[in-house]
Automatic annotation (TrEMBL):
PROSITE patterns: PROTEIN_KINASE_DOM (PS50011). Pfam families: PK_Tyr_Ser-Thr. SUPFAM superfamilies: Protein kinase-like (PK-like). Residues 1-256 form the Protein kinase domain. It comes from the Eukaryota. This is Nuclear receptor binding protein 2b. GO terms for molecular function: ATP binding; protein kinase activity.
């Protein structure tokens, strides 16, 4: 409807597990395409009995914020006479899936680049580690190469069809069994192991079967030449779930782990504190340097030393590297990931009144999510010097979240 932030379009986005319909929509505030998803509950009594649990679940999902996870924007409830539905807005991923990329690579008779494989694994595990560390933990439940997206810059994002992180595939069954948050992380680790194996060999032969057999998985694993890659994937595919490593543990496996360079650590520090720095500070700083000045020197007693000059650093390459770090292509694996704060049930319901009204679908009110990180003000005195007043206020705002 005109005047709403989310304008639903008529283009259907195909079959999405657990969702009755998924259509392209427009975010009129940001001017970008999003996906409008609907989950229908035909039994209104069952829905009403689980309404608080549904709200709590979606409120927690609203807290998910990670560069390698498709963004969940908004949700609201719509009650009709005999049925109810949940409507939620998610980020639109126009890029292709990892499955499509692997098929294209195989078709061109190319092999998988080991560095790219490691970078992809690191990004996926960074996202899984984040989800599993939420309070309560969130289990993906539907991780496949079809639900992993790769962008042109190499950024990986996990989702489920058009949904963020596969969080809704098990939604309706979870509400019936009360086990949504009870699934063990080992399910995701096994799925990741299959994805990591498929990324390495490009395709796991299914011999015409719809499901990949255990024999095909074993054969694919044995075809890996690198013993560390074999060990890595096999640890994820252990039959006993309790013997599988966590996503955080896998980030420290010998095949992936590396000591971060000072350049990467400095880039993360810069990005995390960017709101404290003036705009275009990197560009302005690099312009002020003398290109022939020595920024670092390695001295050797038995041979000539090495000097590193500012002219050896390309500002364009530095800007691209900072942008890649900001987008999540190079996550820090050696440190505990930031965790979203748990949302107390009573607090989550009072912060935003999720209206439950009859059709037509209501548009929920937007709440302020930006944060003031710096504030400056000028005080001026009157001519007599007896009174002062605020003449100027400058706010630096970070957000939205």
């Amino acid at each position: 409807r005109a005047g709403m932030r989310w304008l639903k379009g008529g283009i259907c986005q195909g079959n999405v597990p657990g969702v009755e319909s998924a259509s392209l929509a427009m975010d009129t505030e940001e001017g970008v395409e999003v996906v409008w998803n609907e989950v229908l509950f035909s039994d209104k009594k069952v829905f009403k009995a689980q309404e608080d649990k549904i709200k709590e679940m979606f409120e927690n999902l609203m807290q998910v914020e990670h560069p390698n996870i498709v963004k969940f924007h908004k949700y609201w409830l719509d009650m009709k006479e005999s049925q109810a539905r949940v409507i939620f807005i998610t980020e639109y991923m126009s890029s292709g899936s990892l499955k499509q990329f692997l098929k294209k690579t195989k078709k061109n008779h190319k092999t998988m680049n080991v560095k790219a494989w490691k970078r992809w694994c690191t990004q996926i595990l960074s996202a899984l580690s984040y989800l599993h560390s939420c309070d309560p933990p969130i289990i993906h439940g539907n991780l496949t190469c079809d639900t992993i997206f790769i962008q042109h810059n190499g950024l990986i994002k996990i989702g489920s069809g058009l949904l963020p992180a596969g969080l809704f595939v098990l939604l309706q069954s979870a509400l019936a069994t009360h086990t949504y948050y009870g699934y063990d992380y080992a399910i995701d680790i096994f799925s990741f192991g299959i994805c990591a194996l498929e990324m390495a060999v490009l395709e796991i032969q299914a011999n015409g079967d719809t499901a990949v057999s255990k024999e095909a998985i074993v054969n694919a694993g044995q075809s890996l030449e690198d013993p560390l890659m074999r060990e890595f994937t096999q640890s994820c595919l252990r039959h006993e779930a309790k013997l599988r490593p966590t996503a955080h543990d896998l980030l420290f496996h010998r095949v992936l782990f590396e000591v971060h360079s000072l350049k990467l650590l400095a880039a993360h520090c810069l990005i995390n504190n960017q709101y404290l720095l003036p705009e275009n500070c990197v560009e302005e700083k690099t312009k002020s340097f003398d290109p022939n000045a020595v920024m670092a020197e390695i001295k050797h007693e038995d041979r000539q030393g090495v000097q590193l000059k500012y002219s050896h650093v390309s500002p364009l390459e530095l800007d691209k590297f900072l942008e890649d770090v900001k987008n999540g292509i190079y996550p820090l694996m050696n440190f505990a990931s930031s965790r979203p704060h748990p949302v107390p049930r009573a607090l989550s319901l009072s912060q935003e009144q999720v209206e439950t009204v009859k059709t037509p679908t209501p548009e929920p009110q937007e709440t302020e999510t930006r944060k003031v990180v710096q504030m400056h003000c000028n005080l001026e005195s009157n001519e007599e010097g007896t009174k002062t007043h605020v003449s100027h206020i400058v706010l630096q705002v970070l957000g939205p979240f």
